[in-house]
Design brief:
The protein is mainly beta. The chain is 0% helix and 48% strand. The chain has strands at 4-7, 10-13, 18-24, 33-39, 46-51, 58-60, 68-73, 78-83, 92-99, 113-114, 118-123. The strands form 2 sheets. Strands 2, 4, 5, 6, 9, 10 and 11 form a 7-stranded mixed sheet that branches. It has a 4-stranded antiparallel sheet with strand order 1-3-8-7, with no helix packed on it. A hairpin with a 6-residue loop joins strand 5 (46-51) and strand 6.
Length: 124
Amino acid sequence: QVQLVESGGGLVQAGGSLRLSCAASGRTFSSYAMGWVRQAPGKERAFVATISRSGSNTYYADSVKGRFTISRDNAKNTVYLQMNSLKPEDTAVYYCAATAAVVIVTRPNQYSYWGQGTQVTVSS
């Protein structure tokens, strides 16, 4: 089992940047592929990005490709989401999630463990 705590959200103007962090508990962090999922008001949760256990493979939703970068530091049990060129439509609660799956996971319901979420608001 793994516990996840996100941080780094906030209010930023369009075109700005934010870096989200997700700290994981436990000694098996490197056994999990990690993902970021977001939920905008009135919408379902949507996949943003995922990274493999070693960090060698990443995958992004088309809406964030080229603007967001997911990375991880297994020595620090932390996964990051660098968000650049932010747009108002990126406004959402961002969740960190973990899965033991060995394949790329893009459906939110395929993740087993979730953080509490961090709010990102992008003003126009």
